[in-house]
Amino acid sequence: MSFTKLKAARQAKHSYSYVTPTSQHSESSASANSSSALPSEALTPEPEPQLVEPAKIIVHEDGGAKLYTSLPSYLEIRTSPTSGRGLWTTRGCSAVILIYFCAGQVLLAAKPHAAALSNDRLGQHCSQCFGVGAKRCTKCQIVFYCDSACQTLDWPLHKHECAALERIAASGETALPSDAIRCLGRILWGRRRAGVASVWTREIDGLQSHTTTATSQSQSQLHTHLALALVRYLGLSSPAEIAAFGIESGRELAALVSKFTTNTFTLTDPALAPLGAGVAPSIALINHACEPNAVVVVPRASSAFASTFVKGEGDKNADARAKMEPLMQVVALRDIGAGEEILTAYIDTTLPREQRRAALRETYHFECECALCGPSSSGTATSPGTKITDGGEVDPRSSVWCPKQCGGTCPAPTDDIPLSRCVKCRAPLHKTDEVLDAVRVGCEALEKAGTLQFTDPDYALRLTTNLLPILSSAGLTPGAHPLLGLARLHSALLIAGLASQPGSSQSATPAGPSTPAPPPPTAADAQASLDAAIRAAAQVVAGLDMVLRYGHPVRGIARAELGRLLAVDEPAPNVPAAGAGAPASVLSSSSAAVSSSSPLASSSSILTPSNPAVLRTEPPRFPPSGAPRLRLALDTLVRARAELLIGFGVANEGGAVGREVREDIVRIERELGVWRKALGEGIKDAKDLEKGKMGRS
Ligand SMILES: C[S@@+](CC[C@H](N)C(=O)[O-])C[C@H]1O[C@@H](n2cnc3c(N)ncnc32)[C@H](O)[C@@H]1O
User: Fold this and answer.
1) In testing the pocket of ligand 1, which one of 223, 259, 363, 366 has its CB within 8 Å of the most ligand atoms?
2) How far apart are CA 449 and CA 468, in angstroms?
3) d(CA 101, CA 110)
4) Residue 208 CA: which ligand 1 atom is closest?
5) Which listed residue, 9, 569, 633, 634, has the most CB atoms within 10 A of its CB?
6) Is the pLDDT of residue 547 over 90?
7) Which neighbouring-strand residues pair with 296?
8) pLDDT per residue over 120-139, tens digit each?
9) Could you give the CA distance from residue 420 to residue 404 in angstroms, rounded to a whole number?
């Protein structure tokens, strides 16, 4: 270790904590997983940690007002020379290492200081709680609320927003300002309302900015564009008028815009579709890692968790609970020990190293040196974008199957380092050019299909359909970029296609009288489309399993999607009926004789990354039909729920999707009971028939 690094490490150890230590020890809990490794003192059952206890936190700044009041006492702010302030779990007892949090525990919850729906969601969601928007603001005719309570709650800010939106409409401008501009507007109106000395404003002012850091040209242009658009949106005739909001100069405005771009979260719905933008200063204290130990989600809190959050102000009142939404929550993805830094991912961590680092550099202005990226990590960088860990594993984001199909993988070749070999059997990869070409055209297609997915979904689907086999036959693993990205897009397009098929309850565009309705799909077409969507969803699950930690919400949602597709009623059983006396598909399922140990009964075996070596010897029939399909759906949904409980929080029952999946599981179990009963009766009938025949002869 160099002297500078040693000094930095020592400084980090002594870094100043803003948090006055409180009675954290009594609030810690030992993880069940870790108990066997702990000395006896640690085995004494500890009370469950109070998950959200805003009143107890004491955070001083300049000896003044309490800031970050949503921080619970088991989290503290520390600074490090490399990443600035960050959130850490408080250190436990000195002699005993206690696991503070288990995977799936909610570490922190906060309602954003300001949030704005994206333009395409404004007409569907409530602008206050982000639930379903049922009533439109009669003045601006743009913003919706679920009820008058939400409208009243939002009025102090919306009255300014309403006037701004009306002014824009009156000017003949047809395009609405983006969610970034509308959110910045809400920050400024909120600032004026709260006052510059308020805790609210000081927390916003305390956000990190990057105005002094050298930015890329596109970033500076973005900041300038946002600042100018904001001034216009606020109806100011000159930047100087911004002083009314406690912003004294153009430089301060630029700093605010930089704080916004550095600290804003994309707020998502419970299925992780983007809803809009929000700023929550306490959650924005968390630093980044490409292999995070926590995740920020907006799961729509369970009523039990919501009651904890609104303690003292109507915990029994469902309305009061709904009003605290959108509630951003930081959930532990794995067990987190005392004195550990909480880290979340700012970017898509399914991307390979170079792309992740470029995205972080561009928007957040730092070089990522996390365990997955940095040269100081345990892994050995073998080529840009490719890493082999000490355990001899290749980063699946840039991996190709072994050319000898031994089951191992090779680092994907790059232009700089084209030579590669299997880490397991050392077989050299010969088809380097084919892989490089496939990756290049795959990246281009992914970008194009991503841009066109909403405007020309048919073209986007043709692109993904054509490219996926090319990437697979070049040997890319399901977790490799851009195969995984294309597979995700392909799956989304196929599922959207199913939803808009004529006859579907979610049909998007009913055919009008002037457009002749397309012929309804035959049962076989519908079956083929459904099966194709299932195969695509299964490929996505296999890829995500390779690159994301167990319990990551993206994995949970993808698995839930697959389970639900498998649970869709089959339009036409695709296994010919055999025998008489029992429903055809019941008999077909009995003839398949799927036991719980059979590969067909377990989604895990089917969803194992499709190593060609395995496929060639025993191609599984996928998806199965009849009862095996339903059993596979059940198995997949049970596994999805287990992951959703982690990713969206146990206290939230896995979020809104986790709660729905639980209901699906109950329904399928009931349905399988009916199948089993019918199967039992079919077998009994067949036996009686046989006995009768024998008796007669
Ligand atoms: C949302 S803020 C996180 C809190 C911030 N550290 C602070 O002091 O307020 C994001 C900024 O933190 C810094 N940061 C976050 N994660 C980092 C990391 N892994 N390495 C270096 N800097 C990091 C970067 O400057 C980034 O723009």
Assistant:
1) 366
2) 12
3) 18
4) 9
5) 633
6) yes
7) 330
8) 999 999 999 999 998 999 99
9) 13
